[in-house]
UniProtKB/TrEMBL annotation:
This is tRNA methyltransferase complex GCD14 subunit (TRM61, GCD14). One of its GO terms (molecular function) is tRNA (adenine(58)-N1)-methyltransferase activity. Residues 64-247 form the tRNA (adenine(58)-N(1))-methyltransferase catalytic subunit TRM61 C-terminal domain. Its EC number is 2.1.1.219. Gene3D superfamilies: 3.10.330.20, Vaccinia Virus protein VP39. GO terms for biological process: tRNA methylation. InterPro entries: SAM-dependent_MTases_sf, TRM61_C, tRNA_MeTrfase_Gcd14. The keyword S-adenosyl-L-methionine applies.
Length: 273
């Protein structure tokens, strides 16, 4: 028999919640007893949410209904502060499925950016795994740290200010996956290879076809196989009785994904490691 008391998740002061009115009007906020949120649909008092279960409905002073939802990683990513262009959730699922991303893994990320992909990776490999992320821009890393903290993922991430292109000795070994989000990902492929386990995946975020082409050549030169280059586009559907149609909203091209696996072309460990 299910104990209902243990299935109820009450909202407390300091919790992040998603105030949901409709798909285009939703707000991610940390609730506090004395705070109010003013919008075109009326005033939402944070105190009205505190003590309620997630999923409860609130009514604004303009008699508009707002649902109080528990934020997901998707919500945190879509509402996070941007310091750079982010990797979107539409690409997360394919990366996870194609590479076998799972809890307990050791992941290296080269190019932290705003931390959207970092947040997702940490949410999957936690609590037993870890993400080691590297960047060279302090201002961008500060934004990523705030975003990771907000999503509750910072404890599963080690942030490093280091240019791995110049590293003679790699700081991490036996990684399950290395993800590269740089303008010239081929420049760091030798280091990525040294950090990976045998058969491990390297994934690169490539905004342009020219980058994709140059990287695919570099994959072969650095003894990677099972090369996979894809683009993922989401087209929303507005499903309503008698008038279902494609939405004018959607997320088109944001980036290309390039993936490959570490192998040994001579059927033995080469000097590429």
């Amino acid at each position: 028999m299910i104990d209902k008391k243990n299935t109820m998740s009450k909202i407390k002061s300091g919790n992040y919640v998603l105030f949901f009115y409709n798909d285009s009007k939703k707000w991610l906020m940390k609730v506090s007893k004395k705070e109010e949120f003013h919008s075109h649909i009326g005033v939402i008092k944070h105190s009205d949410a505190i003590g309620k279960e997630f999923g409860s409905r609130l009514i604004t002073n303009k008699d508009k209904y707002v649902y109080v939802l528990k934020p997901t990683i998707h919500d945190y990513v879509m509402k996070m502060q941007h310091g750079t262009q982010i990797v979107y959730p539409k690409d997360f699922g394919y990366i996870a499925a194609r590479t076998g991303l799972q809890t307990g893994q050791k992941i290296v990320e080269i190019g932290t950016g705003s931390g959207s992909l970092t947040t997702f990776l940490a949410s999957v490999v936690s609590p037993r795994g870890h993400v080691h992320t590297f960047d060279v821009e302090s201002s961008v890393m500060a934004i990523a740290e705030k975003n990771l903290t907000k999503a509750g993922m910072l404890k599963y991430v080690t942030m490093n200010k280091q240019d791995l292109k110049k590293a003679r000795k790699v700081p991490i070994v036996d990684a399950d996956m290395v993800i590269i989000d740089l303008g010239d990902p081929w420049e760091v492929l030798p280091q990525a290879r040294k950090m990976l386990k045998s058969s491990g995946y390297v994934v690169a975020i490539c905004p342009t076809m020219n980058q994709l082409e140059k990287l695919s050549i570099a994959f072969v030169a650095n003894e990677f196989s099972d090369i996979d280059c894809t683009e993922h586009i989401i087209r929303n559907i507005e499903a309503r009785e008698g008038k279902t149609r494609h939405s004018f909203r959607g997320i088109g091209h944001t980036t290309y994904l390039a993936m490959a696996r570490k192998v040994y072309f001579n059927n033995k460990r080469s000097n590429k490691k």
